[in-house]
Amino acid sequence: MTLLPKEIILASRSEVRKRLLDAAGVNVLPVAARVDEQSIMQALVAEDAKPRDIADTLAEMKARKIADKNPRALVIGCDQTLDFQGEVWSKPTSLAVARAQLLRLRGETHRLHSAVVLYDDGEPIWRHIATARLTMRTFSETYLDDYLTRNWEMARYSVGCYLLEGEGIRLFETVEGDYFSVLGLPLLPLLGYLGMRGFIPA
Q1: CA 95 to CA 99: how far, in whole Å?
Q2: 146 among known catalytic residues
Q3: Which pLDDT tens digit goes with each residue over 156-200?
């Protein structure tokens, strides 16, 4: 008797993460995990949690939220934090906030911590955190304003208000780390684990 493949749920509505998995041939069902990220992040920051641990905790909470309602599914939870000089940043709430954040990052180096947590049968079975180191160039304020005018509607959903797969790459001098992790999903370790466990053909 051949068993039916396990349903894989992506605990996120991120189009980028869904597109990465689709391109890799992994069929997932995207389901938004409605957790109060801001409150959770604020509580963790108050406890002096490290930025990478905050990403890991948020990824697990999202996976758990969906797994509780879909215990037979394999659930992928993801999150990403921007770490600038030990300070954790959230997605910008307005164009003015985005501009101020990008001006602070101009000519500086920051880190992105991307976490992924897997739940199977309602229990956590695997996790991975990848860190990338990014240095912005000293772009002009004129270019920054033009960039935000052209890209705000999409970039506003990025924690750093930039999209490396688009014009945002022009803001950078160097990017050290896995490209997929910068986009918000440590894809290679995830695919490796899924294949090893037999969740996808390998």
Answers
A1: 6
A2: no
A3: 988 899 989 999 999 999 999 999 999 999 999 999 999 999 999
